[in-house]
């Protein structure tokens, strides 16, 4: 299924050119053992409300510390995991771990988990989600699943059923990296998303006078508002971009300007400071 994902294929070929076929096989072998050896962990990046600048949730991002190569980016190893079938077990570990770690967070703070198109195509996903929530004792409404629009490349009855089943559990659904794929807008008519995540390529440079990205962000926000969906601007790095995306009506902001992905205990500590609704301004400077 990953072969049909244009971006995945692109990243895969780039990876293969960098490493060579043998290097890639090595990476695959190492990745196969990474889970068992405890080399994976999750980093959490704050998602902040534009209205009150409070933390509304965190996105869980998988991290791999390779014994020799050190930190390997998920942009590098997730496509490899998708190609060799490992994404199922890695994705399950991510989901279960994120639910467990988020269960101790106070109040309404949500956790967002990235779901690969390969996981999305597996009819067992809803049962896994239910199990992860139950084991962790996390209310469904506090879990948000992030899905990229590549899942619509082959939209079928089974993807409709998947959306229905996931919504039936009570989790939230977010459309990740919006605007970067190759699919049409038609799926927005029926897909039950709670949120659209505006890709960082549209945020980059948007605050510079005359840059067209601001107009694109505005159009996406208008579309999302009309459909009753929230919007998160991704990759916000500077104060000017906070001001701009707030003015354009984005409901949430995620980016280095408020915090880089951090270890679970740092995320929990951040929430503890503000009684569960920590002021984001408290860590603006400590990026
Ligand atoms: P994504 O889901 O769009 O995650 C956002 C990425 O943007 C993260 O990169 C994050 O660290 C980065 N980012 C956040 N704020 C800023 C900013 O202000 N400036 C810049 N330049 N970058 C920012 P990361 O952690 O390297 O993850 C890359 C991608 O890997 C993710 O993109 C997602 O597609 C994938 N990924 C990460 N974790 C998982 C996972 O557990 N499962 C799956 N299937 N994919 C994952
Ligand atoms: Mg994401
Ligand atoms: Mg994204
Ligand atoms: Mg992205």
From TrEMBL:
Residues 24-275 form the EAL domain. It comes from the Bacteria. This is EAL domain-containing protein. It comes from Sphingomonas gilva. One of its GO terms (molecular function) is cyclic-di-GMP binding. The chain holds residues 384 to 670 of 764 of the full protein. The lineage of its organism: Bacteria, Pseudomonadati, Pseudomonadota, Alphaproteobacteria, Sphingomonadales.
